[in-house]
Specification:
mainly alpha
Length: 255
């Protein structure tokens, strides 16, 4: 699931990581204004966050805030960082600060809406996600649509969840989080061939996770393909031996 972390701040991190100015040499930085230096530190902080280098990400993001506290994207990224380290009060405060800086920022609304859904504040979260989706500046509707699907999943409303995941894939057919969600929903609905098809689409753009392997194992087992299910079992145990899914597959085999 997206909450499942796979998705912290995708729309934010993608837009920042695509910006090439993070590679300026030191000599080119000396003539930069504080705002430009802040943006550079923000981009580097987002990159380090994406790489899981949390200490240096924190340093770069705090430097960015010190240099220019007016940029909503800096507070947006800081909120994602605080989510990553499970400091949820700080994350909420940073999201609120980002919205105060720019009340129409669809990236902030997308991330904050997702966060609120993960915290069980479904109505507030869905309101922000709907606003992000309807923003005329939002050219990546599939982020909000997928997050809305996950929000419904957390409320056990699988019909609405599936509707939003399918809309997300209509908007961006190779968006891996939505494909992963549809693999899981298809399996749960007993649509095993569909689950396999969504996995194939997912693997064309992303790598296996413990969950995709666990569902693939169960799918092929349900279809009677013992050889293929065994291959998925071995891959899960070798690639993610400490995962809860690996423990589940061990239990499934012992039955």
């Amino acid at each position: 699931m997206l909450a499942r972390p796979t998705t912290l701040g995708r729309i934010l991190l993608l837009s920042l990581l695509l910006d090439g100015c993070a590679f300026l040499p030191d000599s080119g930085r000396e003539s930069m204004s504080n705002a430009e230096k802040a943006k550079l530190n923000l981009q580097m902080g987002a990159r380090y966050l994406d790489m899981g280098m949390l200490d240096v990400a924190k340093e770069k993001l705090e430097t960015a805030v010190h240099l220019d506290s007016s940029n909503p994207e800096t507070h947006n990224t800081l909120a994602v960082f605080y989510e990553r380290i499970k400091q949820y009060d700080a994350a909420s405060e940073s999201y609120q600060t980002a919205l105060r800086k720019d009340s129409e920022n669809f990236s902030v609304k997308n991330n904050y809406g997702r966060f609120l859904c993960e915290q069980g504040q479904f109505d507030k979260g869905m309101t922000l996600l709907q606003q992000a989706l309807e923003s005329p500046m939002n050219n990546r509707a599939w982020f909000a649509l997928t997050n809305m699907g996950v929000c419904y999943t957390k409320q056990n409303d699988m019909q609405h969840a599936e509707d939003y995941f399918r809309q997300a894939l209509q908007s961006q057919q190779d968006y891996s989080p939505a494909l992963q969600e549809m693999q899981r929903i298809s399996y749960q609905n007993g649509q095993f061939m569909s689950a396999r098809a969504f996995l194939e689409r997912y693997l064309s753009v992303a790598k296996h996770t413990p969950e995709t392997l666990w569902i693939a194992f169960q799918t092929e087992r349900a279809l009677g393909n013992s050889k293929v299910s065994e291959e998925y079992r071995e891959q899960l145990l070798s690639s993610f031996p400490a995962s809860k899914e690996a423990q589940q597959v061990r239990t499934a085999i012992s039955k």
